[in-house]
Fold these 3 entries.
Entry 1:
Amino acid sequence: MKSGRLLLVDDDRHVLDAMAGWLREQGYQVLAASTRDEALRLIKERPVDLVLADIRLSDGDGFQVLGWCREHYPHIAVVLITGYGTVETAIDALRAGAFDLLTKPLIDEELEMAIDRALSQRKVVEENKQLKAQLDLRFGLENIVGHDHRMQRVFDMVDRIADTRATVLVTGESGTGKSLLARAIHRRSSRRDQAFVEVACGAMPETLLESELFGHAAGSFTGATGDKFGKFTQADKGTIFLDEISTSSPGLQVKLLRVLQEFSFEPVGSTKTQKVDTRVILATNENLELAVQQGRFRQDLFYRVNVINIELPPLRERLADIPLLAQHFLTRTCEEAGKKSQGFAEEAVAAMQRYYWPGNVRELQNIVERAVLLGRGPKVTLDDLPSQITLGQSAAHEPLSGKALKDAMEAPERAIILEVLEMNHWNRNATADALGINRTTLYKKMKRLRLMSGPQGARP
């Protein structure tokens, strides 16, 4: 039997019985109604996937059935049928929301093709709804794990400001989940069905970043062969997330200030002003107040972006959350990889709680994923964890001077970056992606940790 329940609506009993009988022979489940009121009653009583309704009925017309379905059961596809088909009727039917308009006398192949198309489209719509629900779950607060009291304050703040238009500044160290929090704010707002556009401001030079954000006009620079829409235009009615905003140049800061004040701008090389309705979320791992004092960030822009500030605490200050997060990442990795695990050995959890976590939640996620994929035992043990966990463990027990503390913090960070660089053959772009940081941040870390001299042939 074919999937899908059909409702036929026609006041000609002979036509109704004949078409219902033929469709049942083709394997469809079929309900039949000879009036508009009977059709509406059947839809209320029994779920249907597709309605095929004649336009002319004894107590109304098929357009009324269509309108009622659109209002009360929008997931039901409706195909209208008429014996007096005209171009105007077809246009009216499609404008009213009908999936198709068929003209009598009906041809068997044409009817079955229309039914198959309508049911296939309904299936795609349902799959898209399920996918969206999964994305909402993945990027909503449900995926940000934390029982720490500071994280609870973050969750409360997100709930209170998500559905406003206020600009949000998310601060915190690299790897604390700023991008994930920005997506959660978007998903919990009334803009959730519109675009979420993410821009890594530190990953591209100033001239390219300005074009990327605001678009450009044809001929505005070499290679600009046509007009291009920028990220702000793409995020119209939705949300734009500007990561590493502290890296923006003074010139770009001026343009950003105007956008945040007036929500208008001109594309590069154009004099035509564009206006957008965009929610702006920004993020940085720097102290912007210090950047203002040092003259690297405009004071007026700082006041504009700092309307609502959400600070994500580093993982080392959320020790109680480490077992929860580790288990969360272990469960997800096992599901994706089709593996089974009995959890973590006690000594492994203890070691993770003693470690400093310079890469924060992102580093924990990478380490758990690696332990699950490479581990051979039923549980993740200390042997499945990389060397920097052991280094962090031993360093935690020794009294440290200021210089020794700095060295202890740098050792595991250097080990992580070196390992990922070697895994990616010293390709900085691939390494930055794997670590979840932008290329500029990686370059600064490599320079500070004396990792600038890679093997010959290493790609930038």
Entry 2:
Amino acid sequence: MKGLATPWETLSELTAAGTKSAIIDFLDLLGADESARAISRLSEEGRHQLFSRLGPEEAASLIEGFSDTQAADIVENMPLEQAAAILDELPSDQLADVLAEMQDGASESILASMEKEGAAEARMLMTYAPDCAGGLMISEFLAFRAEDTIRDVLKDLQENQQKYNSYNVQYFYVVDSGGRLTGVMRMHNLLFYSRETQLGDIMITSPLSLPDTASLNELKNFFDEHKLFGVPVVDGDRRLVGVVLPSAVEEEFNKQKTKAFLRLSGIIGGEEFRTMPLMARSGRRLSWLSMNIVLNIIAASVIALYQDTLAAAITLAVFLPMVSDMSGCSGNQAVAVSMRELALGLVKPGEIVWVVLKEARVGIINGVVLGILLGLVAFLWQKNVWLGLVVGGALAANTLVSVMLGGALPLLLKRLKMDPALVSSPLLTTVTDMCGFFFVLSFAAAVLPKLT
């Protein structure tokens, strides 16, 4: 008996034989998440055929449901004209994000095939870092002059209703002849004044705004303080260049958390999905794993230096991984605190000494407590007080080293213009392993007759 067709099998059949309306109805029935799953399981040819059947506007609506990495992977492999037509329909901020995920050659070819206005906006947005106001803003906003009347505004809205229909408009802005922001008005203000009233007479002057260089934390703090539907973004000359929505700030925060998690988990080449090409996925993982081989060889070399000590007191082998692992956990806690404080602006990359001193206090207390616990376990197991002193002392010393290093590494790497999330964890693991092995084996070598 044949089983029920999967959503992607049904979608493939509808793409091949169904009507456009049947495809749209089926995708609506699936919902956004299940639609994304079904589309991702189609072959590359099947996706191209699906988006061709739907048309650019409907295809763009589906693309919006994918992550930027997935969307770029899908669109980058489409015929050039089809890709350009679909991207032309995306909101400006997402368009820039998707293009930024592509290879430079592919993105430039698509931009060259797009409408000039949309391509120019995308190029402008791509000049900004993705986590600042310029990188998060949308360029779809309404701006008028102070001498314009309510009648002028209503006429413009009526004439461009199809274009403005996709805009997320809660306010419209007032600019001077040079495009500099001078005022703001709510849309509902259009209802309460005569048609001949000039905007300059009723606008809110000196409106709140943020520079295009404002950081993600500055944006978050702004929206925490001001419960607005959006904030205008101005350049160095106070020209209005875009608007940032609260939802964009929240989404970017979630992206940052996801990226940090992936990097700490060893996915350092960007997001990975199982629908991506096999060799691309393999390469992204190997870049991390290959580096770890080298780091682990360095850590293992410490054991080789003390192999005679380890052979004479083989019981130590039981405690080596415990000392390195528990110290590593302590160090990772310190890394997490430093990463968080860097993100919030509570600590600067130059404050390494201050951070190390703060962590040293915690390391001494926690090291002594953990060392006593592990030393007691060693003593009760082998009835050898010297073994307890060796492993307990080693854990205490290594905990102190690991928390100081864990606190300092993110700041040091940030100062060197490197990604703290990318390098802190493997460096910390290697150093805590080396130090843990060294402390255990060197302490044991010093009292070897007492252990044997």
Entry 3:
Amino acid sequence: MRRFLALLTLILLAACQPDPVAVQQAPTVIPFPTMTPGRTLRGELPTVVALSLDGSNLANPATAVALANQPTATPNYAVCPPAASPVIAALPATGREITDEIARFLSAGGSPAALETALRDEWGLLDDTGTIRSDMDLTGEGTPDVILTYRVPGEGGSLLVLGCAAGRYITLYQVDTPTTPQIIHSGELNANGTPEILFSSEECGGEDECQFRTQLVTWQPTDGRFTSLLNGAILSQNLPEIGDFDEDRVIEIIIRMTSTGTPSTGPLRTGVTIYDWNGTNYARSITQLDPPRFMIQVVRQADSDLARGNTQAAIATYELALRDDSLGNWFNDDQTVLRSYVLYRLLTAYAFTEHEDLLPAFQSIQQNYPDPLNAPIYAQMSNTFWNALQVTGNLRSACIEVQNLVNTQPSAINLLTRYGGSGPMYTAESLCPF
């Protein structure tokens, strides 16, 4: 009984004691180490109030580098200068100074229309192909950009694109050209939502050696600059055209080859080449050539087939060169020179393929050129090849004899390379390659 009363007393006393005060302790700060692969961190990180840029209070110094290289504000490309009536300076002396003055004039509030008047009437830089346009937003910023093509005295020409940035005009793209560039198209070409500029300029290396150099550029928002949509400039004798050649809503670049050649180029094949969009850039899609007009063009095709080892195709093309009377002569003596050359080529090709017309081919050469002393060089090569083949029965030995003759008779090569700079090269070995 006494034990029960004592226990009850202790319980009552404990119930009357005040609650103990909880001790508030700060959480343990665990230093943040450099990264260790596979390590797990536990604990509370202290709140960072301020970081020094020298990295003295940072566990990772790279953080200080990032803090010291904060990005600057992006210029507002939608803000253009307010309209005003500035006076353009006198014509500058260099192309770079002309660009700077154009940008200054527009930045001072001058309108593109006033600039066009100044460049045409005061500076005299807008010829037949020079132009100024301000009706297209090339960069997608919401304001029209200014596109100019003009003559640069003593330097050639220039294509210049300027856009608004933070209340002034800056150069977005510029290319210098030998002559005043001509804009073929500005706007959508490949249906990707971004306009393009297709332009061309003529460059001349001498008399009858002029060609057009065509370029295609577009604005790349991710790069913040204009980039080319061609692997390289397109060189052509004629100014390019555009059109939806295959009706797929994508505009193709069309190069028409209409020149039959000049004394410097030699005979040229006419036809058309199409450049089409492949999803990344514009590339040559197809070249369709018209039938050859000159005998030398057919002969060159046969020579090319033979050089590639396609002897059967070469034989068929050589035979075509002999029987097609519609083929014209580039030089007046083509009927004599090229005919004897084709007969020689057929003789060697027939020997290589063991063709049944080998003997008739040699007999035809003998009939056409009965006088060996006055025969064309290629008839002499035919006789040399045939005689050596009869003695040795070996094509290689026969060709070595022909090559020795060619090395002593430069006309064997010169008569083939006189057709302009666009033709192939010939050697003694290529004239008898077996």
